[in-house]
Design a protein that fits this description.
This protein has 113 residues and is an all-alpha fold. It has a domain of 51 residues. Helices cover 82% and strands 0% of the residues. The chain contains 5 helices and no strands. α1 packs antiparallel against α2. The longest helix is centred in the middle third of the chain and has 43 residues. The termini are far apart.
Length: 113
């Protein structure tokens, strides 16, 4: 099972590295657009928007797939017992995530009574 956990960690790390590379590319394209002559900026902006939409669509699909895999992974650990889950590197990395979540009510949120 631990080998499977390590595989999941590597997949997550690859996904994060891919996202960082995409962000770096977009930053480069943005700098190019900002430094371009006025008559070229609109075409460069359209390229950036098209790339953003493409990345967002792919990223959403990737996240959905990864979430499904994570749920399956957690279920496998649950079947093996509590100790199994506490030893998983993926689960260790998730500890405290809920503490970092912003639970401040947002404008428009319904009040709980």
């Amino acid at each position: 099972m631990m080998e499977h956990c390590q595989q999941m960690m590597k997949q997550k790390q690859k996904m994060m590295a891919d996202m960082q590379a995409e962000d770096t590319e977009l930053t480069s394209q943005l700098a190019k657009m900002n430094g371009a002559p006025e008559d070229k900026k609109m075409d460069l902006l359209a390229d950036i928007v098209n790339q953003l939409v493409k990345q967002r669509t792919a990223r959403d699909a990737s996240h959905a797939k990864m979430q499904e895999k994570m749920m399956q992974h957690m279920m496998e650990h649950m079947q093996m017992g509590r100790e199994s889950m506490s030893q998983c590197p993926m689960m260790k990395g998730m500890k405290g995530m809920h503490k970092n979540a912003d639970t401040t009510p947002k404008e428009g949120d319904k009040e709980q009574k």
